[in-house]
Design brief:
Blueprint (H helix, E strand, L loop, with lengths): L5 H20 L8 E2 L1 H8 L3 H13 L4 E2 L5 E2 L5 H24 L6 H16 L2 H18 L3 H7 L14 H23 L3 H13 L9
Antiparallel strand pairs: 1-3, 2-3
Helix pairs in contact: 1-3, 4-6, 4-9, 5-6, 5-8, 6-8, 8-9
Length: about 220
């Protein structure tokens, strides 16, 4: 392949990173398999150098693993991994709630928009759209805290709360309906600046993924 300019390399690297990260978060890449450069370079339309840099960034965030000798792999989540990520998310999002409830003028519009998008995807039974909207809701909560380092830490906990590919249709609809109700309750508590109620609802929300103690 011809040599890339630095600007073109950066553009392709960022495009590959964003595309792969989205696929990984939405669990659209089979866990346990190797990310083969020829396949992903062609699929994403990027130079292999840009792809390797994207792989390295994703590995630094813990989304993929580097092999002992060469190459990168998609890790298979164990129950212990899920428990650790869920507890991390709970801690970070509870901190965000405290910050939002004490802020002078918190911006809750992105959370509300994500919640309404979720409702539309639920009505249309579009599972990937619902998973993305769910993720955007929680990212918007973190962003509303306006703490850059908090946002950086949160990027290492990219666990969807609804798994569209593994739920039976009726189970999926019930899970989505419950998620939508809980999103709206969290928003209601934030608007009222009731941090304890918001955190209690968040614990309920995350406990559907992992059995966590619900604090009074």
């Amino acid at each position: 392949m011809p040599k890339l300019s630095s600007d073109n390399l950066a553009s392709q690297r960022d495009r590959a990173y964003r595309s792969l990260r989205r696929l990984l978060i939405l669990q659209q890449i089979e866990p346990g398999g190797r990310l083969r450069e020829p396949h992903w370079s062609q699929r994403l339309g990027v130079h292999r150098t840009a792809l390797r840099e994207a792989f390295a960034r994703l590995a630094a965030e813990g989304l993929i693993d580097r092999g002992e000798r060469t190459g990168y792999f998609v890790p298979a989540m164990t129950p212990a991994d899920l428990a650790e990520i869920t507890k991390l998310r709970l801690a970070l999002e509870c901190l965000a709630i405290d910050e939002v409830c004490t802020a002078e003028s918190p911006d809750l519009a992105p959370m509300n928009q994500a919640s309404e998008e979720f409702a539309r995807f639920l009505e249309g039974e579009y599972s990937l759209g619902a998973i993305e909207a769910d993720r955007r809701f929680h990212e918007a909560l973190i962003d509303a805290a306006r703490m850059r380092r908090l946002s950086d830490l949160y990027q290492r906990a990219p666990l969807p709360l609804i798994h569209g590919d593994v739920e039976e249709p009726e189970q999926w609809r019930r899970a989505c309906a419950r998620t939508l109700e809980e999103h709206r309750r969290i928003l209601e508590a934030l608007r009222a600046r009731d941090a304890e109620r918001a955190k209690h609802t968040l614990r309920e929300h995350l406990s559907h993924l992992l059995i966590l103690p619900i604090c009074p």
